[in-house]
Amino acid sequence: MTTTLRPLTPEQPTPDGGKGRLFAVCVNGRPVGRVTATVHGGPGPRVGAITALGIDPPDRGRGRGTIAALAAEEVLRGWGCARVDVEIAEQPGEDPDRVLRFAGALGYTARSRNMLKVLPDSLPQLPSGTHGRPMTAEEFPGWLAAESQDYAELQIRNGLSPEQARARSDADHRRVLPFGMASPNTLLRRLEAAGQAVGSVWLNTDVGRSPDRLQLGWVFDVRVDQAQRGRGYGRALMLLAERECLDVGLRRLGLNVFVDNAPADALYRSLGYRTFRHVLYKQL
Question: Which of 85, 177, 253, 271 is deepest in the core (most CB within 10 A)?
Answer without folding.
Answer: 253
